[in-house]
Amino acid sequence: MSVPLKVREMTSTPSFPLLTDPTRRSALTGLFLAGSGLLTGCASEPPSYAAGQDAEREAQLPSSAPTLYVVASNACPTCTYFERAYFPRFKESVERQKVRLIVLHSPTRELSYQLNPDWVGNHRWILDEAYKHQLLMATPLFVLTRENKYLMAGYGIEDWNTDIVPAIRKEVGLA
User: Angle at Cα 166 formed by Cα 163 and Cα 169, nearest 5°?
Assistant: First the structure.
């Protein structure tokens, strides 16, 4: 759980002249953040697969069942909103019962996995396919596949509603 930073206005001139110059201060801040991993990403979580009853249900699906990859980041406000407003309904839906679901946790909003390919593990081909199809490489990213073949992808909540959900419905025979 992250704790929001509290920012206080300075009421007096600090005794550190190097930090009073805005140009120097921003340059030093950039150097500090770049070195800390906050700008370049940090260690990410491994992919999330179904567990419990969802895993049992997915095990019963035919090998040809579609797989939905959701690429999200804790640093992405849209991902947080998607997780609260859309994902719970999807998890309880008929569509979810008929697909495999894998969540990839990006360390950053931008999917610059070429610079740090380790976080995607053996799912790198998903991002390669999305890139080949000229998707915006940012989170949230949704990629629908069948038998390890790319079907379609979308970015953001609008694509989720207008493209991804209808494609899932079609692929599972509900449309």
Answer: 145
* Amino acid making up residue 71: V
pLDDT in tens, 148-174: 999 999 989 999 999 999 999 999 999
Q: Are 97 and 64 in contact (CB under 8 A)?
A: no
In angstroms, rounded to a whole number, what is the distance separating the alpha carbons of residues 13 and 19? 10
CATH of domain 52-147+163-171: 3.40.30
Residue with tokens 């494609």: 167
- The pLDDT tens digits for 14-44 are 333 333 444 333 333 333 333 322 223 345 6
CA-closest candidate to residue 55, choices 123, 121, 101: 101
d(CA 175, CA 170): 5
The tokens for 123 are 């799912």
Q: Within its chain, how far is the Cα of 16 from the centroid?
A: 40
Contact 102, 69 (CB under 8 A): yes
End-to-end Cα, the chain, rounded Å: 40
Task: For residue 149, give the DSSP letter.
Answer: E
The residues spanned by each domain of the chain are 52-147+163-171
